[in-house]
Each structure stands twice: as C-alpha cells, then as structure tokens.
Write the structure tokens for this entry.
Amino acid sequence: MVAAAATYVPTTFAAEPKAKRVALIGTGWYGKADLWRLTQVAPVEIVSLCDVDSQLLNECADIAAQKQKSGKRPRTYSDYRKLLAEKDIDICLIATPDHWHALPVIAALQAGCDLYAQKPTGVDIVESQSMLAAARKYKRVVQIGTQRRSTPHLIEARERFVKSGALGKVAYVEVCCYYHMRNGDTRATAPDTAPPAHLDYETWVGPAPMRPYNKIVHPRGWRAFMEYGNGIVGDMCVHMLDMVRWNLDLGWPLSVASTGGILMDKAARANITDTQHATFDFGDVKVAWTHRSWGAAPDNKYPWSATLYGDKGTLKLSVNGYDFIPNGGGKAEHKDQVMELEEYPEDKTEKDLERHVAPAIRGHMRNLLECVESRARPVADIEQGHISSASCILANLSLQLGGRTLRWDPIKHQVIGDAEANRLLARPYRAPYVHPTPAKV
C-alpha cells in the first residue's frame, strides 16, 4: 500500500509595508526629538535633512547614519526647495522656527508629502489659513505638533472624567504658564555680533523682520522675540488651549481679548510680554489664560496647566500628570505621567530630550502613520492646529490694539466690524519673500 502524498499548501505571509521615506526640515532641538521618536515606532528611511545651520545639520546627519540599519547618511541641504525638488519623500517633518513654518509646509504639500509640522500653524492668521487651504487642496495628511492630544495620561483623564460625565458640566477653564522663559538675566547684555560662519543668518531670518544677529536668538532663543514667534501665548497657550478644545469639543471662540505687557523685566532684550492675560469666549464655556514669567506659580505642581471646573468636580491637567477632585468630599484621584524609559532606554541619554513628552510624540507619530495609510485626518489635524494657533494670534492682536475684544467670524476669517484688526491678520513679508494666501497655494 502506498501512502497518499500529503497536499502542500504554501503559507502566505502579508507583505512587509515598505519603509516610508522621510525628510526633516529644521534639524535643531525639536526637529531631532520628533525624528528620533518616529524612528522608534516605524522602520522609516531617513532620506534627506535640511537646515541653514550647517553645524546642526551635520550633527543630525551623523546621528541619523548611526541610527539607520543601512548606516546610510541622509542627503543634506541648506535650501528646502532643493530637498523637495527630489520628489522622493513620503513624509516630511518640519520643525523650523515659527516664522519659517508656512512657506516650507506649503511647498512640501505641493510636492506631494504628508506632513508632521510643529505648532503653531503660522505667525499670522493668513499664513495659518493658507497652510490649511494647501493641505485640503493637495489632499495631504498633516499632523500638527500639539501632542497633548496623544499624551497617554491626558487621554486617560479625558475618557475617565470628561467623557464619562464624572466632571459634570464645564463652564469655566483656567489655563496658565508660570515658567521663567524670556531670556532675561545676564544674556540681556550680550552684544550684537556677526553671525557664526556655520549659520546662513540672512536665510534664517527669511520673510521675518531683520534684527542684528545676537547669540541670544539662535539656537532656541528666538522664542523671546515677536519677530520670529508669537510670544508665550503662541508658544505655550496654544498647547493648553488646544488640549481644552479637544477635551470639551470646542471649535472657534466667539471672541478673544487680552491685556498685559512687559511689566517687570524691562531691561531684557526680549520683546515678548512677561505678563499677559487672555480670555477666549466659547459661549457656554469661558477659557482664561495667564502667563507670568517672573515670581512664583500659584500651584507649584501645575505651573503650566489647565484646570477644568465642572459642577461635579475639578480636573487639573499638565504634561506631568492629572488630579481629579470631586465635589462633595468624594475620593480624589491622582496620576503621574509615565516616561516609558525602560521600553525606550535610548531616551535616558538623548541630548536635550524632554523625557516626559517622548511618549506623547511617539503616540502622535503612530497616529500620523495610521492616517497616512487610511487617509483619515489625524488627531491633531491641521484644521485643529489652525483654530488653536489663530485663536492665540488673536489674543496677541487684541493686546496690540489696546486690549479691545475681537469678535471672530470663522466663515469669513475676519474680525467682525474691525478694519484695523483685519489689516493685521497678515503681517508684511521681507523682500523677496511673498506672503501666501489661501487662493494662491
């Protein structure tokens, strides 16, 4: 008797997804933090890097070569337009200073890239609006770096206390920042000098107003100057306001007002406010922001935070944890952030990494990759980034206009009945740069 031959059925394995080809424009502090978190969650190929600071650029390229399995060093560019002209990038990360967000974002969208772009979505409202228009026109996925929406303990707090109803109806929220972050102290006396040889300062300034080079400005110190950013409101309020909007499903504010100024640190070179209060009126919900870059914080555990007041309890939220305090003497609940250092031991030694934020960046990157495949809008889609960024810009415009209330029309994208305010929605560009508009992207 001859045994019947066994039937051979070949095993079918799903094809490994092809590694996304990635570029980074802006290889400084947060550019590297974003890029290395992406490499932690996906087998990407770092193809190209761009920066006008050759020292930062080469440092990033050397690290990238060490991290890539191939050992291949990415191509390097000083001009983002030449990088994008290669037409071989799937995902582009953009982490330039704020005044250089709009032009490379729009160019990358036109080149067919999906994007991870740092907040804010512009230093003026028309820039931000143009970036959103380009994302929709070219049907690209754009994740904005408002990564509180991907912070594990904040996702948990939102589900447990806000969405469950445990907090009750929320009618008032306080958001704040009491960090001392204005580049004061002895650096205020640093003299203007010629820029270092490794920095193309003319291009670094780009479309923004030109200031004499000073070592305070670069790297990282540019946030202290309104020429290159939107002050502490544009840097820190945008995160907390966006987190509140996400928690409470809020759209545009009906109106924005702001007061403040440089009340204490008048000798510093920095020209951003050291004290500012802003109110965002969402109708049934009022949100009040305060920053003060001097003195003590009212709550040392929550110096940069949001406090949501509900009729059933109070919820305090920060990058470091949360506290829920129910009304009527119920059990309070506290949670600290988890840094995931054992899962990702390289975080322990990475230079300048905000270790407590790394899990949020990884979550943001995972969500981006999922949406690149599904073509869905990510959790911090550019429209959400636009609303939060533009709301903060309106606060600064209110302050500039003497503190008057600006009522916003989100359909016309104009301040209602205020021609002077509307003239400030797009700030002048330095020649030869041309300011983008929604109609011409």
Confidence is low (pLDDT under 50) at residues 1-15.
